[in-house]
Amino acid sequence: MQPLEAEGYELWNVEFAKEGKDKQLRVFVDKAGGITVDDCEAVSRFLSDRLDESGLISEAYSLVVSSPGMDRVLLKDEHFARYAGQPVEVSLYKGFEGRKKFAALLGARTPEALHVTPVDPVTLAAQGEEMRVPIELVSKVNLLVVF
Predict the structure, then answer these.
(1) Contact 125, 106 (CB under 8 A)
(2) How far apart are CA 10 and CA 65, in angstroms?
(3) What distance in Å separates the CA atoms of residue 2 and residue 140, rounded to the nearest whole number?
(4) CB 123 within 8 A of CB 146
(5) For the segment 104-137, what is each residue's pLDDT rounded down to a tens digit?
(6) CATH number of the structural domain 77-143
């Protein structure tokens, strides 16, 4: 078990990106009940100490720890399984069945396809039958924020 997991945190995603002329190491964590500012601070201290000790990153960077957010990107198989049946926003690299970016209810994700049922983004009323979108067309899947 990883040390963050031992404290109840789930490592959601890690990005190392250039922001202007600076580099940022962005670490997204989650836990049951949600993430607080104190959680972000604790994880940041923990990671900062270990990263400094390891010397893995030799260039200057800033460490940013945050929650994946309400509109979190689904990345791993367990993310897709956890949120099956929930409304998502699907972005495709190119149009498929007349759609390129749309709201849908999440079905299964297989190695070949993402199964989704298109819905109205406000009412969540179904707008057609389940689609099997070829996985190579899927650019990004985010949870849809519904108020």
Answers:
(1) no
(2) 12
(3) 27
(4) no
(5) 999 999 999 999 999 999 999 999 899 999 999 9
(6) 2.30.30.180
